[in-house]
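Data availability (excerpt). The following record was deposited with the supplementary files.
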Amino acid sequence: MRPFLLLWLAWSVAVWAGPKPPRAAIASAHPLATAAGFEILDQGGNAFDAAVAVAAALAVVEPAGSGLGGGGFFLLHRARDGRQVMLDARETAPLAARRDMYLDAAGNPIPRASIDGPLAAGIPGVPAALAHLAENYGRLPLRRSLAPAIRYAREGFVVGPRYLEQVERRQAVLRRYPAAAAVFLEKGQVPRPGFRLVQPDLARVLEALAARGLAGFYDGWVAERLLAGVRAAGGIWSRADLARYRVVERRPVVGRYHDVRIVSAAPPSSGGVVLVETLNILSAYTLTRLDPATAKHLIVEAWRRAYRDRALYLGDPDFVSMPLRRLLSPDYAAGLRAAIRPDRALPSAWLAAEPETGGAGADTTHFSILDRDGNRVAATLSVNYLFGSGFVAPGTGVLLNDEMDDFAIKPGVPNLYGLVGGSANAIAPGKRMLSSMTPTFLETPDRIAVLGTPGGSRIISMVTLAALDFAAGFRPALWVAWPRFHHQYLPDEIQYEPGALSGAERRALRRRGHRLKALGRTYGNMQAILWDCFLDRVEAASDPRGEGRAVVR
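Predicted structure:
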């Protein structure tokens, strides 16, 4: 009993009062963003100031994944009082939006209407989140924390191979809009290696945000140019849409898996609910004592049930009532677990109450921060698909999202990432679309993790696997690197990266009735930090699939 009590004492002291971490850590999807965060820490800023710097820098140096024209979720832990809160900066549907706005006269989806161009864009939340962070949680003025991003945008930087590959995949829509082509292409073509991306218009927008805070983006000349550009190109934004946008502070989803306390994103993100429900189902098993094929079968069966509930019940909490108490209950998970056979897969079509018909983009971004005081930030931000809608409002440099595709466009029709959703996630004016983003803290008596990843519908499954690795005692370099597998209820298949399933595992899973789909490319870009309170050590890891950088110092 005594060792257990000592561990819990160490955890309590570390979380609420100290000791403080021996070092600070930042893991982000781009080296320049990580450097921006440390630049602000070196000036006396805290993790929340650094989060402003990193998020703004990513908007400049990783435009395919996030930006001022997008949204996301910031999970915060404030060390001085233990406050944990989620900043909901998810985009909202324009007030002129309607449930059937992407359907033709026959009621069929209009191809790519919810993906390309300004009609696909929700009202951005990232600028409001940066102002909110600086005003309510940071130590430094917003202008200081935005300075690195402004410098990167004005002076430019040489892009890497990842940028060139992303432009190659999205060049058609970028070429369609002159302001986007002028920024991201080179004379209308995919840039050559060594291309320097300079964004003077975006620098001026960042300067307006730095000078005026919220009003610098959602009012004044920036708002006027955004509205003029969007409406001229067929969008439906209004001045009221921008004026009424606000960040919402929400209570995170909290659960337990054995001795691990899970703190994660709340609706309108589905991430925390599906993560906790999955781990509740798996809590009765000792996965590390099972053969690998059986363990993976059980994980898949848990995902099948949790993703199904996502499709049935989850949406914007300001618009729909959700049975969260039931979905997060260990008793409810026990009932779902009772129908899991260790030797047989249950086809998704056999689950009762199939939804009427939906996640965060695969080209999202994530960063994790821990400062020397023990403040923490896990932030997942997105413009949804690669380069969002592909549309830049002239004179702003702001690339707009295509997050409207994350609504359930029509019953029975999956979104870009194959997710289905019910009426809880139908389009409505001012509503926030459902997301899969899963910024997460994992806490035990002696260890604390800060993590998250992009990856569309696969975000939740990736964070699940990392949480299981954390619970098993593995280090963050392995959480971010090991090959991954995924199941999301529909389509009813196990998708897997190269190397994720051995030949014996594939045969064993097929015998159980699973359908397998090998993926030709890897996915995800996890950024993770581990603070080992007992050993007084901090580690950080950036996913080798990306070009990010994790630094501890």
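Summary of structural features: The CA atoms of residues 446 and 534 lie 5 Å apart.
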